[in-house]
Amino acid sequence: MGLALIPFIIYQENKKKNMATNCDLLLAQEISAFCDKPLVKGAYNEAVIINRNDIDFDATSVQADGSLASIVLKSGKHGYKCVQPGNKPFGTGNTALVVGDYQNTWTHQLPIIVLAHDAGVTGSIIDKLAQGEFVVVVKMKNTGDATTANGRYQVFGFDNGMRASEQSHTINDDSLGSGWSTTLQEEGALKAARFLVGTTAEATEQAYAALTSN
After folding, report:
1. Is residue 157 helix, strand or coil?
2. Please, which residues bridge with residue 184 across strands?
3. Cα–Cα dist 105/99, whole Å
4. Within a 10 A sphere around the Cβ of 141, how many other Cβ atoms?
5. Mapping DSSP to helix (H, G, I), strand (E, B) and coil, where does residue 74 land?
């Protein structure tokens, strides 16, 4: 065998391996109106914010579809409830595709509103939102699958963390009442969306409740 053929053979072998390992790039479900599960837009006014460093990623398993049966926290750690005001909580939250040279990713954004302004709030919340890295689990109005509640709890920041991309406070802002607005953003997310999904709807609810238990 000539040496000139060796790179070609290696290329063909790698091509075969890639064809075997890139099956997740192929469409795997029919696109329909999903009439049995009509989509409801928006989110409830509650979420859980977790310091990303408090997550035990070794103990947290990712399912084949990218969902999480649970988010395991390190010993003694817990998430923090985040109650949002107004008629459209997380209203400007969005996801956008980012086209890359070799792989496409997604950017997720979530607005966090804090209607308070004092030393305790700025020190314990605002400063931390500005400097930290987080995972946020939002309760969506979409009730999800009745069996597992798939779609009810969306997870943001699991891949690369949510970090502040904007933060502002205006003394005479009528809409915020001199409160604070922070936009958390995740760049380079590997999935268009991740969800907290247990084996049953009850298990999903328990996994969500466990995030804030001490």
Report:
1. coil
2. 110, 164
3. 7
4. 12
5. coil
3-class secondary-structure state, position 130: helix
H helix runs in 100-193, sequence order: 119-121, 127-131
How far from 197 is each of 81, 91, 166, 203, CA to CA, in Å? 19, 23, 30, 8
CB 122 within 8 A of CB 174: no
Could you give the CA distance from residue 155 to residue 175 in angstroms, rounded to a whole number? 28
Evaluated on CA atoms 46, 194, 50, 187, the torsion sign reads: negative
For residues 99 and 55, give the distance between their C-alpha atoms in angstroms, rounded to a whole number: 29
How many whole angstroms separate alpha carbon 188 and alpha carbon 208?
25
Distance CA 67, CA 63 (A): 5
Give the pair of three-digit tokens for residue 38: 């009509």
| Residue 182 near residue 165, CB atoms below 8 Å | no
Average pLDDT of adjacent 10-residue blocks, the chain of 214 residues: 52 46 69 75 95 97 94 97 93 96 96 94 96 97 86 96 96 86 97 96 96 87
Upper half-sphere CA count for residue 153 (Cβ side, 13 Å): 27
pLDDT of residue 145: 79
Helix (H) or strand (E) holding 13: helix 5-21
Residue 110 in tokens: 């979530």
Q: How far is CA 153 from the centre of its chain?
A: 9
User: Rounded to two decimals, what is the model's pTM?
Assistant: 0.85
Q: Rounded to an integer, what distance in angstroms lies between the CA atom of residue 173 and that of residue 180?
A: 10
Contacts from 56-63 at CB under 8 Å and sequence distance 24+?
Answer: 63/197
